[in-house]
């Protein structure tokens, strides 16, 4: 038994004071490590994946980017197969460069290409294989630390080979769900908690962002703030986030634009896709380029500036807070 | 005062026995009438629209296609303007042929082209103008009879000229919401009861239907039943129907396919878009071609057969029943 | 086919202009009629119920209190049985005086006593029997006109005798669901569209209203407006209205109080339970006493004044409008 | 950076393997400790509360009953005041014995008596004061560990004295919301994420449980399983759990009854209220009496047997899992 009165300061602070710290990782450091692991570590049953996790320096050496989220660089060499398995953790992949890998989700082969967001929602079997002549590295995002902390994790092995070696340009999920505002009549009666669309293609994301800036140029509403276009990836069957625990977004800043100082309950991980960003998170400042990542812990204020135009991918744990009515946001210059 | 015991048979039948009857209208009859009205009747403030409504023969001469829905052919000559107004009735337009009209919805100009579905949800200002050298005719669908029956109708006049004479290829609503699975971050916090997407373009609908048939060819799930592809037009912000009272769908049948005999609570109106359909509704049978329309009253069994491939647009009042837990469907060969 | 331009005035008015008219019925006129029917008309299979419907004078002689709602006085003599049946129409009974009848809902016997609200939601079997030595009259409310207008009605006969002749003080539904804020763990996983609680007892309603006035006396929030306490009967499993199409409420006005002038989309029927009310609906004014009923058509302004304290039961079709986003309310002195 | 392949076994187990362990605490041990703290530790600003937390032996000495939930014995001497504050953590109190304390929630004084459940949902100001001549001890339950783990905590001091010293029998929240199936019309338009009812009184809980057993005696549905009655405390405005992160229940077992072996994702804390329970959690077995507590970690199987009749209060973190679609339950003898 432990008395409250000695613990209250740490357990019940006046506002969130995360052990996680603002931190950035350079792609130029991460990729060589992934390549080295490609030479040293085989991929297969047991270890399951060749993934190097970003460990937030404030979290005691654990492979957690934030208290709730896992972010890792996964690396797959030509001809390699990451065997099939499934787990209750929600997962996605974001491709900052390269192509040639197909991820097979419940038997549906999904091409992974530069700029794409690929989903593997909880309890779907999935494996990957690389049919190209080059290795491929990408970003994995999962809710592993959150699921671990609340003891909700189930895991099951699938076949050691991927269940389909087809390599179509578009997955079956895209054929069914990848049309704007259109739902397949055969599927609408059974909406699932996760998006039925396994791939969000770069060509659509890019065009959506360009359209918002074009609207701004024409004097119409659409951007989040001046010079700042952004989309949320959504479940086309419900409009909700792509998965119950993770939000995914893409942001584009014009040269010269900057985001308003912002504080949010919950944490986020950002990866620069193209261009350069001047990022301030709490008392840290970085100048980041393509592939670089940074984390924003809960309630730490942050801004992103663009000396030149910059594109950024973002994921966060916001749906957890919103669904539990714990969300709170404060933006400089806006009413609460 | 009226006793129940003499009324119960008509008011509380064993199953729905609509006064509306199965009926079909030929495009070859409708279009000349619309053209004639184009010569005789001006468009402008007061009459507001040059629209000829389909009157179900069972409904006592009222301009109601079914007890809940209005369907009309609207006709606009070159240079004409249908003045702006708004009403609480939900409305859409479906274009079976032609182009050259822009409908301006709350100031956003929306091109109307063959195969497109255009929305004007309740209480949005809207007007139309024809900039082409040819007249244009299209199908209007509204919930006028339903709204009339429950006394929910408000109406307000807007300007006599359309509030924007721009003629862009894509509307602003499409720039914001017309990207598959992507939501503009500036808009996601305020979902409305109606779709924020004003136009569903034929190129997307056509491709979605083709994709379903391609999946069937490859042995995968996707079609509603053999040879029958279908999509529902949806609100991308919520996944719900495009408007609270109206469902809109598009169906494609391969040559040789036929739909299973089906009974539904609620009524629907169908328009053949291309090809020929052999339609049976209750004890009526028709052979219908492009532009022809037919209605299915509540609970009347119907099937659609395709001697040659056929595309059909459909709208129905199903959301009313689903939201009030009054929906019921029976399909031959399926468990209840 | 019918042109819009000649119909638009009636079909699309500037605001709701119901054919239904404000009207009141005196209990002193209704009860003798019910008694007379008790002498002349047997109750049994075929006619099913001895119910005399209030026919709004604006609705062409149809037995409809409003365009959507049925209100009738049902009358059952000692020893009589109203046979079991079920229908998709939602129904309730409100008891303005008397006792001695049990309504049996899906086999659960529910006592009917003065001041109680009893539910028979759509598609539940139900019959009534009178075990007292006196006849009993009560108010039936249903969505018959609405269901009839949209062709959604199914009906099925049950046994000619009630399926249980037990006469418990409390129904099984009350034993399960009649405890404030408590849900039976065996039932929570399957919430239905209608309330699982078949009876809302006068003792609870009376106390809830008295509590609101006591809060007002003590200077605390709780009443709707000065001197006006009111409760909505709710589904304890969801907090929604008791049935998908009907709202039921109870209102209490202190002597000297009056409601603010109010306009609502949708119609309502009120019955005075005790006391006297000075009612103004549109251009009509009535002085009403216990048992008297009046209707408020859609968008017609109304106020209720209480020279002496008055209790009123009310039912309305508001859930239909709210679920379809067609609701609108305007209260004198309040911002829109 | 940390590789996945060395971590996967611990982070992604085949099923939940909580660090928390099954554990029980005897009321006979806890109460003297609380009494001792009553002699030694003052209550007041800074420490805020005299509460002794149950520390699960598997959680490294932290004052956490489970990975998500805090359970503590709070103790207040005659005349003492626990000052007002508010925090985003959700809290409740359950009273196993005693009376004389009022908790003041946003200015509303709420009596605390034996068998009552009292709510203090997140971000409501609350303080306690003891007006009796005896000290009082009770159980506090909060989501402190969960909120701490996800960095969502805000805290604010209120007045050092309680904002109302009134000691009414019923709180204002009960006057408004404590009537079965009745909602105050003045409040229904703004449902909150937490229950508006601050107190769930023992007399209602007791009667609801007795009613379920009476139904079982009469051969009707109602109990969870033979001899096992149970209620969930619910938000009367929505039917949801009383707070977004915590579920609260009360269980009654007849003498001779036992619960089926059950596994659930998520953890729970139980307190015996009256009688004796033979509890098996995983490989631990205890014989527990009034006031004794035990915890069930995620996915650890448990059964409760009653050699004599037993009443138990339970709280769990289940809403977190259900809202995030991470819930899973397995009951011996039931289909999945």
From TrEMBL, chains A, B, C, D:
Residues 76-140 form the Cupin type-2 domain. Residues 160-190 are annotated as: Disordered. It comes from the Bacteria. Keywords: Dioxygenase, Oxidoreductase. GO terms for molecular function: oxidoreductase activity, acting on single donors with incorporation of molecular oxygen, incorporation of two atoms of oxygen. PANTHER family: 1,2-DIOXYGENASE PROTEIN-RELATED (PTHR41517), CUPIN (PTHR41517:SF1). This is Cupin domain-containing protein. It comes from Knoellia koreensis. The lineage of its organism: Bacteria, Bacillati, Actinomycetota, Actinomycetes, Micrococcales.
């Amino acid at each position: 038994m432990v008395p409250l009165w000695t613990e209250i300061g740490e357990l019940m602070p006046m506002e969130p004071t995360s052990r996680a710290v603002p931190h950035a990782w350079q792609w130029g450091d991460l990729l060589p490590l992934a390549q080295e692991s490609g030479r040293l570590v085989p991929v297969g049953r047991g270890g399951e994946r060749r993934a190097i996790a970003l460990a937030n320096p404030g979290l005691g050496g654990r492979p957690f980017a934030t208290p709730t989220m896992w972010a890792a660089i996964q690396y797959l060499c030509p001809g390699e197969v990451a065997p099939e398995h499934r787990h209750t953790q929600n997962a996605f992949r974001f491709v900052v460069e390269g192509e040639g890998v197909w991820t097979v989700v419940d038997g549906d082969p999904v091409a992974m290409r530069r700029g794409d967001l690929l989903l593997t929602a909880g309890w779907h079997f999935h494996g990957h294989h690389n049919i190209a002549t080059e290795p491929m590295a990408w970003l994995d995002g999962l809710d592993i630390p959150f699921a671990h902390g609340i003891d909700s994790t189930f895991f099951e092995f699938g076949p050691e080979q991927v269940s389909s070696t087809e390599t179509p340009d578009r997955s079956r999920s895209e054929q069914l769900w990848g049309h704007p505002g259109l739902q397949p009549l055969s599927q609408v009666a059974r909406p699932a908690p996760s998006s039925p669309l396994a791939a969000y293609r770069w060509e659509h994301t890019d065009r959506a962002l360009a359209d918002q800036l074009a609207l701004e140029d024409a004097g119409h509403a659409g951007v989040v703030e001046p010079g700042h276009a952004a989309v949320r990836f959504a479940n086309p069957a419900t409009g909700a986030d792509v998965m119950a625990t993770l939000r995914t977004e893409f942001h584009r800043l014009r040269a010269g634009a900057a985001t308003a100082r912002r504080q949010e309950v919950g944490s986020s991980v950002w990866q620069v896709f193209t261009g350069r960003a001047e990022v301030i998170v709490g008392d840290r400042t970085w100048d980041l380029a393509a592939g670089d990542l940074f984390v924003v812990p809960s309630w730490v204020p942050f801004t992103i500036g663009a000396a030149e135009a910059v594109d950024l991918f973002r994921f966060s744990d916001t749906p957890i807070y919103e669904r539990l009515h714990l969300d709170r946001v404060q933006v400089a210059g806006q009413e609460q």
